[in-house]
Specification:
The complex is a heterodimer of chains A (81) and B (178). With 81 residues, chain A is an all-alpha fold. Chain A has one domain. Chain A has two helices and no strands. In chain A, helix 1 packs antiparallel against helix 2. Chain A is rod-shaped. The two termini of chain A are 13 Å apart. Chain B is of the alpha+beta class. Chain B folds into two domains: 2-70, no CATH class; 76-177, Rieske Iron-sulfur Protein (3-layer Sandwich). Helix content of chain B is 34%, strand content 28%. Chain B contains three helices and ten strands; from the N terminus they run H-H-H-E-E-E-E-E-E-E-E-E-E. Chain B is elongated. Mean pLDDT of chain B is 85; it is low at 1-5. The chains are: A mainly alpha (81), B alpha+beta (178). Chain A binds chain B through residues 12-13, 15-16, 19-20, 22-23, 26-27, 29-30, 33-34, 37, 39-40, 42, 45-46, 48-49, 52-53, 55-56, 59-60, 63, 66-67, 70, and chain B through 40-41, 43-45, 47-48, 50-52, 54-55, 57-59, 61-62, 64-66, 157, 160, 178.
Amino acid sequence: MSTRQAQGTTLFTALLFLIGIGVVVQLWLLAASVDALLRHQENTSIHAAIGSAVVFAINGLLVLYVFNFDRRIKRDSERMK
Amino acid sequence: MADEKDQPQEECFECKKKQKDARWREDFPVSWENDNYVTRREMVKFLALGSLTIAGANAVVAGLPYISKAAEMPRTRVGLASSIPVGGSKLFSYPTPEDPCILVRQNNGDLVAYSQVCTHLSCAVVHNEKENALFCPCHHGYFSVDEGRPYAGPPTRPLPRIKLEQQGNEIFAIGVEV
């Protein structure tokens, strides 16, 4: 395994954990949003929805970044062969 | 002696079984462990899709109150204003016959109406004239008549307020404020 591949593996694992944490935060926001809905506090639900959308955007960017990185490594390793 | 004779036969049977197993494995080369194996790439995709689903669900939850508000509330006649004395109350239903409400004339002469369903465990609240409060007899919950806010007992949420409109002597319920 090349240094770059090893770096990619570490990055992939780290980002997997980060995205996992993001999903857990989103679940917490969803629970808070439902709770606020039942309490008739519409503002809280809106803020939770905005927060959830932001976390999703971050997760999406991380996924795109890590897939691009992975593709680049594969392309480089094919060239080396 | 009989055991010695049986032994090679049993071994042979085992050998055949192993051969059969090997053939079966050649036909179906995917093992159970490999079948359940999830790559990190698949896991990341699954998490990203989960993230999208949760964000969508959150948006739906945030939009729900506005969708329900958009549905027009009916305009229902409650009764005559002159029929309710100061400190008196009247029961009515709004917006459907299954939603009991209470109309109270406060000491200053103002009329206020609330849902009669206690926000604790849905018992019916009644007007307590002496304490100028809406009282839930089930668990001794008290709500202020002015705003419908709970100030004693187990309830934590205020009573939904019924919007009223007075035309001459007649009172109409026109909406619910939660």
